[in-house]
């Protein structure tokens, strides 16, 4: 039996893709628009050593496994069983066949795989984990994210909207939910390349401070702020949100930071943001969540080691309770799950359009990680494995919220 004929037992039977192997064997659906190529026995070795998604990811990232055609279509064709561990009997069979090649163990781990050290969610470890993902290359992110340089879920006003229109709509939705107006002070925690900071300053005349643990993001943002003539109103610092000295802000936005906080740190996180606000100030928390409490908070091994080390996702109910218990009255919530699937589709299209440039900039392995992760996450949002929630809270002035009687955003 050739490797291709064995592979459906790993990926699942009746997959709607063609499977080809270097030994000439074939399996799956002949002539399918998507094909999986086993380019080396190392692909099988990775699966034997790390059954499930981690082994598949390692095989793809190293190039031992190739996907011909659209990555999202390929992942959509694989049944959910591909994310489960390979049965022990099949794993033993793989090891037996690989043993003469001396490939079954140990198998080298790709250099781009990251395992952070130190106390989980300590400042030093958080800084290292954020740097791993975000300090890749500002040029690379410019190609993938587009001119907005917004690395969070966009809000599409209509199905045909462009990515730039949708990112502008997202920032404006946040601004309106926060009730921003000229002369107010905004703190944007985990600000990325400063998109929300610059939007608030430019569109609303708000004095905005953003903080990020990525040095490259802060440098890029400060340059963009100067080029757009916003230096009198906007600033981005390379700083942990826990170390912001100022307080008395009118509003706080947190767009895509909570995923990096960790469940055990949520009470301190929301309490610290409440401390930064004046009475009557609002917080808009925008983050990826689990669809319910039956899922673990930690992501799969591929996302945890190649994309967002130490990331943790909670169901929205846990976030609402934590906000409510630590300084905020919760006033509004909405799920933007489908919007994130659209955002990831646009990012993936940008990556494919500049694929050769991206590979030259960050290396083939890193580019393959991004191609795989964005397609997989898009599928996750489409299938309700993950969601995206915006939760609006207010720090009461004694018992007065100063909120409008009905949402005006």
UniProtKB/TrEMBL annotation:
<dbReference type="InterPro" id="IPR050723">
    <property type="entry name" value="CFA/CMAS"/>
</dbReference>
<dbReference type="Pfam" id="PF02353">
    <property type="entry name" value="CMAS"/>
</dbReference>
<keyword id="KW-0808">Transferase</keyword>
<keyword id="KW-0489">Methyltransferase</keyword>
<dbReference type="InterPro" id="IPR003333">
    <property type="entry name" value="CMAS"/>
</dbReference>
<dbReference type="InterPro" id="IPR029063">
    <property type="entry name" value="SAM-dependent_MTases_sf"/>
</dbReference>
<dbReference type="GO" id="GO:0008168">
    <property type="term" value="F:methyltransferase activity"/>
</dbReference>
<keyword id="KW-0949">S-adenosyl-L-methionine</keyword>
<comment type="similarity">
    <text>Belongs to the CFA/CMAS family.</text>
</comment>
<dbReference type="GO" id="GO:0032259">
    <property type="term" value="P:methylation"/>
</dbReference>
<keyword id="KW-0443">Lipid metabolism</keyword>
<protein>
    <submittedName>
        <fullName>Class I SAM-dependent methyltransferase</fullName>
        <ecNumber>2.1.1.-</ecNumber>
    </submittedName>
</protein>
């Amino acid at each position: 039996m050739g490797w291709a004929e064995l592979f459906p037992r790993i990926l699942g039977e009746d997959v709607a893709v063609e499977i080809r192997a270097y030994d000439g064997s074939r399996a799956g659906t002949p002539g399918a628009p998507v094909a999986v190529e086993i380019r080396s026995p190392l692909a099988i070795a990775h699966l034997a050593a790390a059954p499930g998604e981690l082994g598949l990811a390692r095989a793809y990232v190293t190039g031992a496994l190739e996907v011909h055609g659209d990555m999202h279509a390929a992942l959509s064709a694989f049944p959910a069983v591909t994310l489960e561990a390979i049965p022990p009997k099949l794993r033993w069979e793989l090891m037996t066949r690989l043993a003469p090649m001396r490939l079954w163990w140990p198998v080298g781990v790709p250099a781009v795989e990251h395992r952070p050290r130190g106390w989980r969610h300590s400042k030093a470890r958080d800084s290292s984990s954020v740097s791993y993902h975000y300090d890749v290359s500002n040029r690379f992110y410019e190609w993938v994210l587009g001119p907005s340089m917004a690395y969070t879920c966009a809000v599409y006003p209509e199905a045909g909207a462009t990515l730039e229109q949708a990112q502008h709509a997202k920032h404006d939705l946040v601004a309106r939910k926060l009730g921003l107006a000229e002369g107010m002070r905004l703190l944007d925690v985990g600000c990325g390349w400063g998109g929300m900071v610059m939007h608030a300053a430019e569109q609303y005349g708000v004095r905005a401070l953003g903080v990020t643990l990525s040095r490259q993001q802060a440098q890029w943002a400060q340059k963009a702020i100067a080029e757009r003539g916003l230096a009198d109103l906007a600033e981005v610092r390379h700083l942990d949100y826990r170390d912001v000295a100022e307080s008395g802000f009118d509003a706080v936005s947190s767009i895509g930071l909570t995923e990096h906080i960790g469940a055990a740190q949520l009470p301190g996180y929301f309490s610290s943001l409440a401390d930064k606000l004046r009475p009557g100030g609002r917080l808009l928390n925008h983050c990826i969540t689990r669809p319910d409490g039956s899922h673990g908070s930690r992501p799969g091994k591929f996302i945890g080691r190649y994309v967002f080390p130490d990331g943790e996702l909670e169901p929205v109910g846990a976030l609402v309770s934590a906000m409510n218990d630590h300084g905020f009255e919760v006033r509004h919530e909405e799920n933007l799950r489908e919007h994130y699937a659209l955002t990831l589709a646009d990012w993936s299209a940008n990556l494919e359009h500049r694929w050769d440039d991206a590979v030259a900039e960050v290396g083939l392995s890193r580019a393959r990680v991004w191609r795989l992760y964005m397609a997989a996450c898009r599928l996750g949002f489409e299938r309700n494995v993950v969601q995206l929630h915006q939760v609006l809270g207010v720090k009461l002035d004694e018992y007065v919220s100063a909120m409008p009687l009905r949402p005006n955003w």
